[in-house]
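Duplicate of #3305? Posting structure anyway:
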């Protein structure tokens, strides 16, 4: 059950303590969890509860999948970019040797549990602040323990990607 919910200007929010994540990032603060879209989430539904419970129960698998996926994504993006020559590329896009090195460059910022669902469980967006992206942040759209997409745009795109993923699964 999701506890300590607050309605902040039409947005349902709470905190979540992910001990595995705290150990990896050496951060002892809880993460904010936003339920649904602003002004649309009037109450927490079973799909939201199921996603929240899945995050708590599978926090290690989720984080390991995210870090490995982002490591692969970063390596691929780094090799295709030319930031004004190899010297500039090295300066602005450091060489990351293992997925474990990723933790030195990213910090989780919040989690969005979306209204879009499949199999009675909401899609979830994990948002991160990073030094490795020009925008300073990235997000990961997931469903259960599957990474659907890495995103470098706003949360509204996540809803559309989740709906598209849901259609493609049928």
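Output from current build:
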């Amino acid at each position: 059950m999701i506890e300590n919910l607050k309605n902040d200007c039409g947005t349902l929010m709470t905190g979540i303590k992910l001990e595995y994540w705290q150990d990896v990032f050496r951060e002892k603060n809880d993460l904010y969890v936003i339920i649904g879209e602003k002004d649309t989430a009037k109450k927490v539904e079973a799909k939201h509860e199921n996603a929240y419970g899945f995050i708590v129960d599978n926090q290690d698998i989720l984080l390991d999948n995210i870090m490995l996926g982002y490591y692969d994504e970063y390596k691929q993006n780094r090799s295709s970019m030319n930031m004004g020559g190899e010297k500039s590329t090295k300066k602005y896009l450091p060489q990351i040797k293992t997925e474990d090195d990723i933790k030195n460059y990213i910090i989780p910022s919040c989690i969005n549990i979306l209204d879009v669902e499949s199999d009675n469980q909401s899609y979830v967006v994990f948002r991160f602040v990073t030094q490795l992206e020009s925008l300073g942040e990235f997000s990961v759209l997931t469903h259960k323990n599957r990474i659907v997409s890495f995103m470098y745009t706003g949360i509204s795109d996540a809803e559309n990607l989740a709906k598209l993923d849901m259609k493609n699964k049928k």
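Confirmed duplicate; merging threads. The radius of gyration is 17 Å. The chain has one domain: 6-153.
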